[in-house]
Amino acid sequence: MSLDVSLYYVNDGHEVEVFSANITHNLNKMAMELGAYEHLWRPEDVNIEKAKQLAPHIDKYLTELVLDSNKYCKFNPENGWGIYGGLVKFMKEYLDACIKYPNAFVRADR
Question: Which residues contact 35 (CB under 8 A, 6 or more apart)?
């Protein structure tokens, strides 16, 4: 199981994807502890529609994640699928895309 996120525009009635990424659900406990679960896994539940709405949240959570790595590394799953560094990389790439495409629509498929 995984989380698939994407940023897209609608052009002449067709969706044009400009970014997509995938991360394992094994990192959802780490994201919950961080407080980022809803924004990453369920953006529609916190009224996030566009990348520019999501970017400040990812930035805040990413800063916290990096500043307190010891706290979050303890949530690495025992099976090794989905570790701290993977969440950091995912969030950095997602943030960069949100900044690059601020008016893109956000989609999270679980």
Answer: 61, 64
Give how far Cα 43 sits from Cα of 11, 20, 74, 76, 108, Å.
22, 15, 25, 23, 7
CA-CA distances (angstroms) from residue 30 to 45, 91, 97? Answer: 19, 13, 22
Q: Does position 78 have pLDDT exceeding 90, yes or no? A: no
pLDDT of residue 1: 82
Sign of CA dihedral 38, 21, 57, 62: positive
Give the chain's domain count: 1
Give the model's pLDDT for residue 89: 98
What range does the domain containing 40 cover?
A: 2-109
Residue 66, token pair as written in the block: 């990096």
Residue 80 pLDDT greater than 90, yes or no:
no
Per-residue pLDDT at 59: 98
